Amino acid sequence: MEDDFEQFIREFYHLTGLDLAMYKRQQMQRRLAAWGERLGYSTFQELSHAIHENPSLIHTLLDKMTINVSEFFRNRDRWNSLASHLSTLNSGSRLQIWSAACSTGEEPYTINILCKEHLKIDTRILATDIDEDVLQKANEAKYQAYQVREFNQQELNRYFDYGENVFTLKKEYKEGIVFKKHNLLSDTYPSNIDLIVCRNVLIYFTEEAKDLILHRFSQSLKSDGLLFLGSTEQLMQPFTYQLKSIAPFLYQKM
User: What is the DSSP-derived secondary structure letter of residue 122?
Assistant: First the structure.
């Protein structure tokens, strides 16, 4: 028999096209229940009715589905490892990069900084997320101190204009990035990609959904292209996705 949460999942899918059943149930149910209670709804049936009555709640719900906490050069040693492999990408005149589930933009901007520092070829970065609100924040490129704490003072001066605890990325480090809404579970994936960065996102999905996403990532990559994952997302059998490990949490398309 369908329970309260399963009915909510079904109705939410019909309303938005987003399948919450592909996310890990326990953490998703707990997070959305707590959010609903703060709004005054004690059951998922009440929450579903509220969303039907006020569709703007959908944007707030999307923000609660994942923890949109990021920062520049998070786990910096991993980014240093990626930087050392960027020169192996053979893309001719232009490098095509996809920052998937980019949240508020720290990761695609980090990639852009790396490419400008380590490469001499033209770079184009597609940065996507399911949440339009975080994409708007990403476009603004304004950050607080904790989000830029990996930078030393010289780097802050080089990459940002700042004052009163607001750090605005300089224009030259925003160039070449396009932000776009994208659902990893249902939307078409880009093709001929040299590098995909998707960090600390797969942990939210069921094993079935994660397997689907990884297969589609592999299909998106060029031969010898790179997939850069988060520090909790090690692939135990990367060959399943035509990938091989070349550094911790960094994989290359075979």
Answer: E
Cα end-to-end span (Å), the chain: 45
68-100: b or e for each residue (b if 16 or more CB lie within 10 Å)? Answer: bebbbbbbeebbebbbebbeebebeeebbbbbb
Q: Are 168 and 188 in contact (CB under 8 A)?
A: no
Residues of the chain with CATH 3.40.50.150: 76-253
Structure confidence at residue 90 as a pLDDT band (50, 70, 90): low
State yes or no: pLDDT of 122 exceeds 90: no
What is the pLDDT at residue 137? 93
Question: Which tokens sit at 190?
Answer: 């880009």
Conformation bin of residue 91: beta by default, left when phi > 0, alpha when psi is -120 to 50: alpha
Residue 74, H or E segment: none
Q: How many Cβ atoms sit within 10 Å of the Cβ of residue 65?
A: 18
What number does CATH give the domain 76-253? Answer: 3.40.50.150
Across 78-106, average pLDDT:
88
User: What is the rounded CA–CA span in Å between residue 247 and residue 12?
Assistant: 39
pTM of the entire predicted model: 0.84
